[in-house]
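User: Quick sanity check before I run a bigger batch. Here is a single chain. Can you write out its predicted 3D structure?
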Amino acid sequence: MSKLKLKRYNNESQLPHILDKIVHLREQGYSEVGYRSMWRILNTYKNCRIRATQETVRFALNALDRSSVVRRLNRRLTRRRYCNKGPNFCIHIDGYDKLKPYGISIHGAIDGFSRKILWLSASHSNKNPRFVAFDYVHYLKTIKGVPRMVRADAGTENVDIKYIQLALRSFHNDDVAGCI
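Assistant: Done. Predicted structure follows.
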């Protein structure tokens, strides 16, 4: 921007105006929204006509009502604990479609215990069940065994894996043998 001699001006409204508008919006029923939602309301609603940065709104909400900020922080999602009984107990299979517009479909699996990548393959289609089943069968040949459980979404690409798993585990005598 400096090479083009362009400048960014501070278009932010004055702090007392921002605080007044936040207090007014909180009285109208926006008392439980976080700073991102409040910032969006301030900057997009026509009746507000307030320009503020997210940092300014965050500091203002923190100063106006600290207890609500702490309460919202306590409700945020926390990472859940995941336990697995051992290697090849449960493997997780999924596809990644973000590169699909470029003709690249990625499909892979990880071991739920060690988080080791079992396979990761790229092809022109991961919607074809045969491609995904080929990777699964190749993995089974590599480990010379069958995992106890396979977790995957209910997509069409995982149908063949479901039937392979059912066929190979149908004669085992544990509680998940032969189950979908």
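The chain has a mean pLDDT of 85.

User: Great, the batch can go ahead then.
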